[in-house]
Design goal:
367 residues, alpha+beta, 3 domains, nine-stranded antiparallel beta sheet, eight-stranded antiparallel beta sheet
C-alpha cells in the first residue's frame, strides 16, 4: 500500500471526526412539538368564562348552570342547588390534569382508543361550546386517552376519567343551613301530647325546658342530639309535590319549630303515609264435587270459601320533610316549591315518641 493515499485517508477521517465533534457541541434545534403537551387540559380562564358545565356518560347527562350570584344549580335535576364541594373537586381534577404526550392522528389507531363514551363540555349562556373533551379508554400505565372538540388527534392525559353521571347526585342534599349555636328555642311536637319547649337566653347556654314533670329535668344530651339531627336534615330523593305519598305524609306529620336568635322561625314537619291493613275477599275457590259427596255440603263449602276474606298489609311510605321559614325570602321556601323531599327513615323512626323520652331524674337537692 502506497504511503500517500494512506496519509490522505487519515487526513479525511480526522477532518470528519473534528466536524462531528463540532456539530455535537452545537445546540440541537427543537423538533416541532404539539403546543398542548405539558399544558393543563383546560385553563382557569376558560372555566371562568363558562356559564354551563355539561357531563355526558353512560347515556346520562348532567348539566350544571352558573347563577348571577356565582352559585351553581343542577339544571338537569329540577334546578336544585349544586353541591359546591363536589363541583369544586371536579373542577380541580380538570385543571390539575395535564397533557402528557401526543399519541396519534391515524384514523385506524384513533378507532382503537374507544372514544365517544364520556364527554366534558364548557358552554356559554346560550349553550354554545367553549371547550369540550372526549375521553377514550384508560392507558395501561395510567391516565387516559383524550381528544379535544372535533379534532381527530389523540393525546394521553394524567386524568382520572371517572365522574358521577347521575344528575341527582350533583345536588346539594342539605335542607337547612343552620348551626346549633343559632337556635334560641326549639319546640318538639308529639302526636298525642303537648309539645316540649326548650330555650336559652344566649348562645352557649344549655337549653332548658319551660315546664318539666315533677322531679325531672331536660336531658341535655338528648335535646342536643335531636337539635343536631333537625338542623342537619338531608334529602335522599325527591318527588313531585302533588305525589299522593307526599300529600299523605304531610297529613300524618309531626311538627317541630326552630327559632333563631335573629328572630326567624323554621317550621319542620316530618311524616310518612302510615302502614295500612286492607281486608278484601279471598275469591271463590272451585273445588271439584265428588259424585259420592253430599251435594249440600259441597255447596255450603263453596259459599264459605267465596265469602272468605284475607288481610293485606301495605307498608308505610317514605318519610318526607316539609320546611317553611318565617322570612319569605329564605332559600328553603323556594326550595320547597320545587319538589317534595324524602329523607332517611331513621330521621323519623329515631324521634322521641313521648315527652318523657326527653327527661331524666333531676339530681337530689343538697342538704
Amino acid at each position: 500500500m502506497k504511503l500517500k493515499p494512506l496519509i490522505v485517508t487519515v487526513i479525511i477521517l480526522a477532518a470528519l471526526s473534528a466536524a462531528a465533534h463540532f456539530l455535537t457541541r452545537l445546540p440541537i434545534p427543537p423538533s416541532a412539538a404539539d403546543p398542548r403537551v405539558g399544558q393543563a387540559i383546560v385553563d382557569r380562564a376558560t372555566l371562568e368564562q363558562a356559564a354551563q358545565l355539561r357531563l355526558t356518560g353512560n347515556s346520562l347527562t348532567v348539566l350544571l348552570a352558573r347563577q348571577p350570584d356565582a352559585s351553581w344549580r343542577v339544571a338537569s335535576y329540577h334546578d336544585l342547588p349544586a353541591d359546591f364541594d363536589k363541583l369544586s373537586r371536579f373542577v380541580d381534577k380538570l385543571t390539575n390534569a395535564k397533557v402528557q404526550r401526543f399519541v396519534t392522528a391515524n384514523p385506524d389507531r384513533l378507532a382503537r382508543l374507544e372514544f365517544g363514551g364520556q364527554q366534558f363540555a364548557l358552554l356559554d349562556a346560550a349553550g354554545h361550546e367553549l371547550w369540550s373533551l372526549t375521553l377514550g379508554k384508560n392507558a395501561e400505565a395510567g391516565g387516559c386517552f383524550i381528544h379535544f372538540g372535533d379534532e381527530q388527534k389523540a393525546y394521553l392525559a394524567s386524568l382520572d376519567p371517572w365522574f358521577d353521571p347521575v344528575a341527582k347526585d350533583w345536588a346539594d342534599t342539605s335542607l337547612l343551613n343552620l348551626k346549633p349555636a343559632d337556635i334560641a328555642r326549639v319546640e318538639i311536637g308529639f302526636e298525642a301530647a303537648p309539645a316540649v319547649v326548650a330555650s336559652r337566653a344566649k348562645t352557649g347556654d344549655p337549653l332548658t325546658a319551660a315546664t318539666a314533670p315533677a322531679g325531672q329535668q331536660l336531658a341535655a344530651d338528648k335535646i342536643d342530639s335531636l337539635l343536631d339531627q333537625l338542623i342537619k336534615l338531608r334529602f335522599s330523593d325527591t318527588s313531585d309535590p302533588a305525589d299522593p305519598g307526599a300529600i299523605a305524609a304531610k297529613q300524618h306529620a309531626r311538627t317541630f319549630k326552630l327559632i333563631t336568635f335573629d328572630g326567624k322561625t323554621y317550621t319542620l314537619a316530618l311524616g310518612r303515609k302510615p302502614e295500612e291493613k286492607i281486608t278484601k275477599p279471598a275469591g271463590a275457590v272451585h273445588a271439584p264435587i265428588s259424585p259420592n259427596s253430599d251435594l249440600k255440603s259441597q255447596i255450603d263449602a263453596l259459599v264459605k270459601q267465596a265469602s272468605a276474606t284475607k288481610t293485606e298489609t301495605i307498608p308505610a311510605g317514605p318519610v318526607y320533610a316539609f320546611i317553611a321559614c318565617s322570612e319569605a325570602s329564605a332559600p328553603v321556601n323556594a326550595l320547597m316549591q320545587k319538589r317534595a323531599f324524602q329523607i332517611d327513615d331513621k330521621n323519623y323512626t329515631g324521634l322521641p315518641e313521648k315527652p318523657g323520652d326527653l327527661f331524666v331524674p333531676a339530681p337530689a337537692a343538697k342538704p
